[in-house]
Structures are given as C-alpha cells and as structure tokens.
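Subject: sequence -> structure tokens, single chain

Hey, anyone have a minute? Need the predicted structure for the following. Not urgent.
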Amino acid sequence: MSPRATATGLIMASLIFSLVACTHKIPKDAMALSPESLRDRQLQTRIFETNDEKMLLTASAAVLQDSGYTIEESEIACGVIVSSRERDVTDPRQVVGSIVLGVCLGAPVPWDKRQKIEASLATKPIDDQRIAVRVTFQHVVWNNQNQVSKCEQINDPQIYEEFFAKLSKSIFLTAHEI
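Reply:
Had a minute. Here:
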C-alpha cells in the first residue's frame, strides 16, 4: 500500500470516527407524553354516540364554516378536515408604542398585524356505535414586517367547549332533519 493510500485511509477513518462520535443519542423519555398533553387531548376530544362518520364530518365542516373558517382540505375517507380564518390584529396602542420605542432606539420596532387561526379536525371510530372527534386550534401572528411573531396552540377551554356545543347542536338538528 502506498503512503498516499495509507494517509487517505487514516483521514477517512478519522472522519468517520468524528461523525460517529458527534451523533446524539435519543433520550429515554423522548416519546413520553407530558401531563399537559393528556389534559390537552381531553380538552380537544369528544365522543359521539353515532356510527355515521360522514354525518359527523359534514356537521363539523358546517360548524367551522359558520364560525368563519374556510375549509382548506377535507378528506372524508380519512376523517380529516383542515380549515383556517384570517383577521387583522393591529392594535393602535401597540403601533404607537412601537413607533415611540423605535424613535428612542433609532431602529424600527415591529407590531402585530395579522393572524391566521387554523383548525384541524380528525375523527376516529371507537366501536360500532361511537366516534371520537378531536379538534385543535392554532394561531400564527405576523408583524408589520411580515415576520412570524407568534405560533402556538390555542388551549383556551372555552373555545373547545363552544365548538363542541355547536357541533352537538348541529348533529342533533341534522339527525332530526330540522
């Protein structure tokens, strides 16, 4: 073996060893659910006494649309609906505060301008007579410089309670053809 081949082999071996040494091991509890995730799942899920998944999805889409959401994706066979709505969240007090602070600092200070609320809904049959419906709400806020300033899940119990109350009413009206 030539000295050049030996040197190349040593360089390759040390490179591979360095890459292997840099890998991170996955922590043992990486897949463990936090207590908050169980609480959130309970907040976001309701079980309905029906075996008509299509009717549940239709009623869910109607509730979302009545609440101002636009259906972006809907796959009845998979039991999924994705929807969103946008609104202006410009607060004059925040704008004035940002301008004053910007003048003091000599640099522009952004303020929140628009928000997109996304609702994702999925159904899952539990048995022959019950179907679980899970809905999650998230919001993304952009500032006046078109940068994301917030992106988070909405965990307000009132929002979920209102959604499921409307859904229950819609299912009742649909079932009784009212």
